Amino acid sequence: MKALKDLMALCGDDPNRDGLQETPLRVLKAFLEYTEGYKEDPKEHLKKTFDVNHQEIVMVKDIEFYSMCEHHFAPFFGVAHVGYIPGSKITGLSKLGRLVEGYAKRFQVQERLTNQIADAIEEILEPQGVMVVIEAKHMCMCGRGIKKTTAQTSTTAVRGLYANDASARLEFLTLLERQSRY
Ligand SMILES: [Zn+2]
Q1: Which residues surround ligand 1, an ion (CB under 5 A)?
Q2: How far apart are the first and last CA of the chain?
C-alpha cells in the first residue's frame, strides 16, 4: 500500500486526496486477479484425458486471454490459437482454454506464454505435434514509448511434426484464416 502511494506521489499527484483513497486497495485486488495463474499448475488441466482414436488435427482458435507484461506491468491481450495432432491421448477442448488462462494470468512476455502452452501440451498429451499462435496487442507499445496503437504482435511455437512438416503448418494456418460459416 505504501509503495502504491509513493508511486502516485512520484507521478505528481497527492495520494491522500479523496479520489485516490481507495485506489491502492483496488490496484492490489486487480493485480491479485491478473496473476491468479500462480495459484495453479496449468498443466494439471490437461491430465484429464480420453482415449479417442483421432489422428488428425484438433484445433481451438480465438481463445481470448488477458495478461500482464512483466517489463512494464501493462496489460497485453489478444487471442491464442492452439492445435495438436494427438498421439494416443486427447484432452477436453475447454481444458485448452484453461491452460491458456493459467499461463496468461502471470507476469509474462508473449514469447514465453506461447512456448509454455506448447510445452505443456507436448509434455502431458504426448501428441504427434503441437502448434500455438498468439496474436496480441501490448499496452506498453500503445500508451507509452513508441505509441504504436495499431501494432499487433504474433508469435508461434511448434513442436513435434510441426517443426519439420510445412504442409501441417499450412493446414493449421488455413484453418486459422478460414471464416466460420455458422
Ligand atoms: Zn511491456
Answers
A1: 69, 71-72, 140
A2: 49
